[in-house]
Amino acid sequence: MSALLEVRGLRTVFHTRAGEVWAVDGVDVEVRRGECLGIVGESGSGKSVTFASVMGLVRSPGRVAEGQILFDGRDLRALTPREMRAVRGKEIAMTMQDALTALNPALTVAEQISEALEAHDETLPTRGRARRAAIRAKSVEMLGLVGIPSAESRLRQYPHEFSGGMRQRIMIAIALACRPKLLIADEPTTALDVTIQAQVLELITEIRGRLGMSVVLITHDLGVVAEHCDRVMVMYAGQVVESGPTAEVIAHPRHPYTRGLLASIPRPGLRGQPIRPIEGQVPDLIGMPPQCRFYSRCPVRREACLAPVAMRAAGEGRMARCILLDEVPA
Amino acid sequence: MSLGKLIERLLQLVPVLLGVSLIVFVMMALTPGDPVQIMIGDQNITPEQEAELRRGLGLDRPIVERFFVFLGNALQGDFGQSFYHRRPVADVISERLPATIELSLVALIVALVTAIPLGVLAAIRKNSIFDKLATVGSLLGVSLPGFWFGILLIMLFAVQWHILPVSGRIGYSSEIETITGFLLIDTLLRGNLPAFWDAFKHIILPAVTLGLPMTAILMRVTRTSMLEVLRQDYVTFADAKGLSRRRVLFRHALKNALIPTVSVAAIETGSLLGGNMIVETVFGWPGLGRLVVESIFLRNYPLVQAAVLLYAVIYVLLNFFADILYTVLNPRVKL
User: Fold this and answer.
1) What is the model's pLDDT at position B335?
2) In this structure, are B20 and B107 located in the same domain?
3) Which residue of A89, A122, A211, B270 sits 20 to 30 Å from the alpha carbon of B89, by its own alpha carbon?
4) Is a pLDDT exceeding 80 seen at residue A49?
5) pLDDT digits (tens, 9 = 90+) for B146-177
6) What CATH number is given to the structural domain containing B273?
7) Does A191 touch chain B (CB under 8 A)?
8) Which residues in chain A have Cβ-Cβ distances shorter than 8 Å to B260?
9) How far apart are CA B327 and CA B335, in angstroms?
């Protein structure tokens, strides 16, 4: 089956006073229909910018410079702003990290859900009371879907009148209002308490099954990925360094960075052993030489890593960006 | 807002008004110049007549006593007789007040309808030529003195080009019997369109002069808060919903960006009162501002005191109104 979203050679640049920052530098992504793809990486690895680029939401001083973004057979970069607006919210929806800042404080929940329906839903009656009633019914239905009790009466309320977990659910309800084919969930749990985190992730997974949509889960939490994602893509300094089925990547990481990430997670099975952080810092992307970007922090680096390193096959459905793969057979 | 809060806010008026009346009283008393001497001018009168006049105005009493008499009378709604008009101060002021309110409201409207669109445009075209021109323009707007700018407008539009009248509120031929005291409304109520047009032409220059500094300030406030709001996540999220640009800008961004603008506008409306004195004098506008200026020169103590008290009340009420507006626009705040 063809992929729902296929990104090839995406490069997104930010023009800053200090120079050009290639926040996304040659990223390929494939999201299949119905799957959940996890995107893992530290802050600044380019994971959010990659998907902001997909949605056409990169703002000045940023700019998508190169690459192809094929969604459901269409090249999104070739669309006019108006055509792109018809895709955003309707076919590709997004949730943001913190619902408190992503929901408009001055508008009621009802208004923030219904405007998405207003903009995209063509099944609604075209005008008048019937249209308003239909929008209201759908809004209530969406709030019910994300598990907000007494949705009818809570529509009138403002975002600040809800708890953090409820707000997150409302944001998800808004994103899903038009039944998108793809949901991009950008750090959906980072701003939440641990107990609420699990509930929200369960909710996303459950709705994904029910609506048959694809989900991109952007996170820096490998545990979240392990539990909810079919496949995972690890990003580092604007590039993908490893991708593949979640279970295999976690069991047998092929890139030193992925190994470092996994080693830095405390695990109950390894009680008593020290957590090993990855030494060093994420490199400055300004004036980055065309070498392996993990070079400065890599425990197994060698001379040859100072040349550009391409992604290479690393077993069934797996890719990694490390020259050592050529030496050690999988 | 609860009734209790309302009463609390109104009670806050009491110390403000007491303080204001004390300060004005002392200042007027310390100002050189004697109202009786000014009234006499170069007429020949006997010292007995002068003393009689002084006693009649209550000016023979010690200042502390005069203050408490003033306070006592004011509490009963009696602000005394205007020395100059020989009529109750309240009557004189209420005749002049509508002209001032009308001018201020029109100036406020001028400021709001120009400042908000310009500020929004400057924000969404940040660093463009337009934005830079707007910045220079607003700097000029706050720095040009009203008396200079007013005279400039008169020279250009009235003297040079004969488009607009030089001064006054309405031409003699268009004068009508007033109903509300607001000529723009009264002329319409009377169905007298030519008179309305005449009154309208008369108010343009003073309203623009009065509104200019406020326009400049509100434009800057709108631009800054709009830029701030456009950076917010909820604007990105609104974009991610695929809403039209118009809806994102006006419904999501502007509604939040207007919160500071409206607060500043409500408070700045108070400063229009101060501007009124200059603008009314320059344009011969028969309002309270000009009356106060004249009364200061005539040492017409009762009128100045009452007018300043009125200004203080209006100012406090405007602040109060600003708070209410703030809660209406910003659902997170409860008074």
Assistant:
1) 58
2) no
3) B270
4) yes
5) 889 999 999 999 999 999 998 888 887 777 88
6) 1.10.3720.10
7) no
8) none
9) 7
| Residue that terminates a domain, selected from B26, B49, B75 | B75
Average pLDDT of the residues in B57-80: 84
Judge whether B82 lies within some domain: no
User: Does a structural domain hold residue B298?
Assistant: yes
Q: Do B130 and B33 share a domain, yes or no?
A: no
Same domain for B68 and B197: no
Range of the domain at B266: 92-329
- The C-alpha R_g of chain A, in whole angstroms, comes to 21
Residue A89, chain B, CB below 8 Å: the answer is: yes
Is B117 among the domain residues? Answer: yes
Output the CA–CA distances (angstroms, integers) from residue A11 to A38, A265, B242, B270, in the order listed: 20, 30, 23, 54
Look at A134 and B36; give whichever has higher pLDDT. Answer: A134
Q: Which of A82-91, B82-91, B309-318 has the highest mean pLDDT?
A: A82-91
Contact status of B321 with chain A (Cβ, < 8 Å): no
What's chain B's average pLDDT? 89
- B183 and B255 co-located in one domain: yes
According to the model, what pLDDT value does residue A190 have? 78
**Entry pTM:** 0.84
Tokens 């488009």: give the residue: B163
Domain tally, chain B: 2
Cβ pair A291, A277 in contact under 8 A? no
Q: Are residues B96 and B63 in the same domain?
A: no
Q: Are residues B248 and B119 in the same domain?
A: yes
Q: Kindly report, residue by residue over A219-234, the tens digit of the pLDDT.
A: 988 888 999 999 999 9
Q: Would you call B236 and A102 a contact, using CB atoms and an 8 Å cutoff? A: yes
**More confident: B324 or A182:** A182
Helices (H), chain A: 47-54, 81-87, 99-102, 109-120, 128-145, 151-154, 164-176, 194-211, 222-228, 246-251, 256-263, 324-327
* pLDDT tens-digit map of A268-310: 776 677 778 888 888 888 878 889 999 989 999 888 899 999 9
Substitution target in B233, B239, B241 with the highest count of A β-carbons within 10 Å is: B241
∠ at Cα B290 (B288, B296), nearest 5°? 100
CA neighbor of B222 nearest in space, from B199, B189, B255, B269:
B255
Could you tell me if B61 and B98 lie in one domain?
A: no
ipTM of the complex as predicted:
0.90
B5 located within any domain: no
Q: Do residues B102 and B236 share a domain?
A: yes
What domains can you pick out in chain A, each with its CATH number? Answer: 3-91+180-243 (3.40.50.300)
Q: Do B332 and A158 touch (CB under 8 A)?
A: yes
A-to-B residue pairs, Cβ atoms closer than 8 angstroms: 80
Residue A330 has pLDDT above 50, yes or no: no
